Amino acid sequence: MLFKYKTSDGLKLHRALPGEFLIPLVAAMTFLAALSIAGAYASQQLAQRWSAGAASTVILQIPMPNDPSPSNDKIASTLANQTKIQLVTALLSTSKELDSFHQMTDKEIDELLAPWLHESVQAFALPIPAVIELHLKNNPPLSETMQKSLRQIVPDISIEQSNFWNQRLNTLANSLQTSAFLALAIVISVAAAVIALATRTGLMQCRQTIEILHNLGASDFYIAFRFAKRSAYLACIGGAIGSFFSIPLLLFLTYLCLPFSSDPNWQSLSNASWFYFLITTPFQLFVLFIFLPICNYFIGWITTTGIVYVWLRNLT
Amino acid sequence: MIQLDGVSLNYKNDVTLLDNVDLHIPQGGFCWLTGPSGVGKSTLLRLLHLEKKSNTGLVTILDTPTNHARRSTICRLKQRIGIVYQDFRLIPNLTVFDNIALPLRLQNADETTVQRWTARILDWIGLEHKQYTYPKTLSGGEQQRVAIARAVIHRPDLLLADEPTNALDDYQVKRLMDLFYDLNDLGCTIIMATHNDALIRQFPATRLKLENGRLWVNNAV
């Protein structure tokens, strides 16, 4: 059991560890930590999206899709009356390595080419190939057997696999994530250093009283507990303030990240209210921000306890 | 029981304050500690209070060998020792009441006991009317009485007093000695450093004389 009347031991910790010094510094560190966490989360999400989206997608381009297949292959000859697109579609329908496939409509191709042509592609009477988007069940690339079968049916087919870019984008996302975690580790270290410095200053200020208390039989644990409690409390308050102020910035970053969102109507969201971003911000991030003050409490507690123990050992 | 076996203590590694000192004081002993100024009386008391470590030799305090004792053991031993410093060492931002109550509170005594015992000792030192004042507003004699009250409130097993009568008048000295004798009768070992030969003659007890790093023991007749 600890000394019950802690305000009567003369340590006066509200003077030795003043809140006006520690709280703003810890709040600033928490703000940076919140940004690092948000960055790590965003890069993780981006990596996942790339893996689930571009990585597992293969694009087939079939020139002159409505022409009969030029192949002399047995399969093609048995289906001589069928067009290239019909043959490819038939093959894809029986494939077990595909999750789904989608042939882009004329409208979709129009939209895709609109930035370059400014008009409907139909107006130019251009020989536009048929485009089929394949969603693979497993990771790319498309199996060699499947590629061979496709080339047998349509020798001039173009198969675009994005796994080359996906590997690089994943590496980039992982690098971003590592950088964010590194930044977080640095921020935590700086916060701990600030708390350690404040504790040391407080100890120096209370040196005479601590010496007297120690000589009267106060244990190291008692003195460390008193300092740790105060410092952890201030770190927690600083953490709460830092977390609170990071939320508007987080919403702003969510707004900036809209073009990368999976929502196809992102352009219409740019005029949405802040409240919309507040409710659509990932729940995990809010939970993390609630945990930040608690983490600060423990960082404050552990750092201060360590510093006080070391200081007391050097004192006597 | 207090025992020093071949204890040496150097000050700043060149001045020898204690040179191979042997000492045995049984539990319940009463000793005067004398010697010229600057000879190291206060340092010896600090050694016995476990604030300093000897360079060589074995130090046993209250039957506990302290040379390799854990910090928690030292802390518990200190709670059984009362000390009156020459410079009082009161905590400036605590009231007289809280300064005196500190040893009891550090031992987690219940607050009713703290209030009762502190009120009694405040009454005994005649400062009950100043219990809510701060040490800096007290005279030297009053501060010394507060320091004495703080040293004895928890009924220590060992009392170390460094010139505790310096700022007291004859009447207060007589009362202080009565208190120390009462504590001694209850089994408390007392070591009291003083320059006052008249006081030693008035209250005869074993005399420890510290000179040139050596400790001479003269038993009272």
UniProtKB/TrEMBL annotation, chain B:
TM spans (from-to): none
Pfam family, one: ABC_tran
Keyword ATP-binding appears in the UniProt entry: yes
Highest taxon of source: Bacteria
GO cellular component: plasma membrane
GO MF annotations, alphabetized: ATP binding; ATP hydrolysis activity; transmembrane transporter activity
InterPro entries listed in its UniProt record: AAA+_ATPase, ABC_transporter-like_ATP-bd, ABC_transporter-like_CS, ABC_transpr_LolD-like, P-loop_NTPase
SUPFAM superfamilies per UniProt: P-loop containing nucleoside triphosphate hydrolases (SSF52540)
ABC transporter domain location: 2-221
Keywords: ATP-binding, Nucleotide-binding
PANTHER family, alphabetized: CELL DIVISION ATP-BINDING PROTEIN FTSE, IMPORT ATP-BINDING PROTEIN
UniProt similarity note: Belongs to the ABC transporter superfamily.
Function: Part of the ABC transporter FtsEX involved in cellular division. Important for assembly or stability of the septal ring.
This protein's name: Cell division ATP-binding protein FtsE
Annotated organism of origin: Commensalibacter intestini A911
